[in-house]
Amino acid sequence: MEFRRRSARLRAGADRISALPDDLLLLVLARLRCARAAARTGLISRRWRGLAARLREIVFRGVPLHRIEAALGRLSPAVSLLEIRVPKERRADTARGKLLLRVGPARGNSLLRVGTTRANSLLRAAARLEPEELVFDLPSDLIDGSLVVDLPCLRRATFIALRIFLLILRVPDGAEFPALESLSLSCGIAHAHLDALLRHCPRLRTLRLGGFLFDQGDLRVNSASLQELAVDRESGLTHRVDIVAPALKQLSMSLIATEVSISVLAPMVEKVSWHCCYRAGSITFGLWELEQVTLETSESQGQLPSLQIHAS
């Protein structure tokens, strides 16, 4: 008898939650910050079914790639955030007495391989949702060769962050990014047609580039609206840097160079952090060779900027 009363009380509590209006239930789902967890609430009650498709913040973390593709087709457009972080798959060798650790689906590994066709299809599906913010993280162990990706038109996007290894990023004709204010591109080995991309971003204020292999070793940035530029190139050689940004206020550069040609036209810049390592023997002064140049502007009023030159 006591068990029946307890079950009835539990059902009554569940009914009271399910009786809440849709707006409140959507707030509950949004706090989960995970599309998979939100979708699973449909197993609790029929009342919750279909609500996940109406969320304005969609976050996929730890969800297998093939399930992400299927879910994107069921979502309503005009979302505020679309975050896709495809899980890695790590394995330890059990034959050597190590624990097997797997992040991602336990089976269906063939579905995880991502080529050019699949990557473009996934980005087009994301673009159909018209996100205001797009985050797309695709780990290197799932990529099948170099990816030639056409960045789709994202007219409502104010923030785009792409982290895709072995990427060749192109901007097709007709692609426009009129609302884009912040762009972050982080790749292992990549070519990006930055000139073509920046021409379609009239409101871009912040540009962050990480790990890029620039076209033919040249970095060219030309933007009338750009206010902050951060470049962190961990590998590969840079031969030429050409920056034209009349509104630029913050510049952060970290790169490896040989005989580099540098031109920076930024009359409004206030804060500079410049770190350049030179390949051995690329720049010499008699018996000396240049190794590294570091320039830091003052962080606060009264402090002097610093310039460090390392040679051997």
From TrEMBL:
- Transmembrane regions: none
The molecule here is called F-box/LRR-repeat protein 15/At3g58940/PEG3-like LRR domain-containing protein
Query: Which part of the chain is the F-box/LRR-repeat protein 15/At3g58940/PEG3-like LRR domain?
Result: 127-253
Q: Pfam family example for this protein?
A: LRR_At5g56370
Kindly give the InterPro entries that the UniProt entry links to this protein: F-box-like_dom_sf, FBL15-like, LRR_dom_sf, LRR_FXL15/At3g58940/PEG3-like
Q: Which PANTHER family match?
A: GENOME ASSEMBLY, CHROMOSOME: II (PTHR34709:SF54), OS10G0396666 PROTEIN (PTHR34709)
**Native organism:** Aegilops tauschii subsp. strangulata
Record's Gene3D superfamilies?
Answer: Ribonuclease Inhibitor
Q: Which domain of life is it from?
A: Eukaryota
